[in-house]
């Protein structure tokens, strides 16, 4: 079973490479070797396929519905893509893909569109392709499979060593760069790789949209984010102040006077004590009450009260 999984890894890695090349051919109308390695292989596809196969196999005694496979593929492949993006950025100061402009993305590393495709792809792998592939692999002699795995592993290891040196050059160039934006760094990297051998040029052509993140760029991005937040808060405060002023201007003067009179009446009611008040105060209170009653009975005042309510 283990050797079959290794062969599945190489099969699906090759399949993933073919998919990437076809998609880029449709986009750019020319052949682009999109593999992370120099050879025709995309390890991230093989890794995801093997993880899905193992996870679903472990759950087979309990559940083997299409929906379960979809969810497992959705989560596992999303995790693989996120971790790969994070690791490459930490290790080489470069982001190979960025979904920040896509809807429902997580830190620009994964987004809902790809996750749905991962789920559907997992269903196809587990329920349609794997049964056929396992049937074919069962008919191949163990020794033949061992030789095939040995040869493929050796070739893949050599390819990885070459890729490691290329990425090491990229990392060194990024760390030594004095540029403060990713476009300038990308141009420097392309110039550096173009002057090298065909293997280096292949990397530059395969990933023209790599986003490089140095400490200088990260610091600048942090400054921009802080400035954006400050401007946002200032804009919100200005909007609130403007709304308040507009409300004050729009409020009729008559309503303001009526509100003031009402508050004055409340204040008088709180301060007035009939037992201790002298005749002059009582007379003034009676006059105020009479004026208020006459004011309340005016038709225009009744309309204002309705508006205030």
Note the overall shape.
Answer: elongated
Span between termini: 79 Å
Q: Biggest sheet: strands side by side, in what order?
A: 1-4
The helix/strand class is mainly alpha
Average pLDDT rating: 78
Q: List unreliable stretches of 5+ residues.
A: 178-189
Subunit arrangement of the protein: single chain
How would you characterize the largest beta sheet?
A: 2 strands, antiparallel
- Helix-residue proportion: over 70%
Write down the Rg.
37 Å
User: What series of H and E elements makes up the topology?
Assistant: HHHEEEHHHHEHHHH
Please count the beta strands (DSSP E, at least 2 residues each): 4
Strand content: under 5%
Count of discrete structural domains: 2
**SS summary, helix count:** 11
Question: Layout of helices and strands, plus pairs?
Answer:
Blueprint: H1 2-28, H2 43-59, H3 66-92, E1 94-95, E2 105-106, E3 110-111, H4 112-138, H5 142-176, H6 182-194, H7 198-206, E4 211-212, H8 215-250, H9 253-271, H10 279-296, H11 299-308
Antiparallel strand pairs: 1-4, 2-3
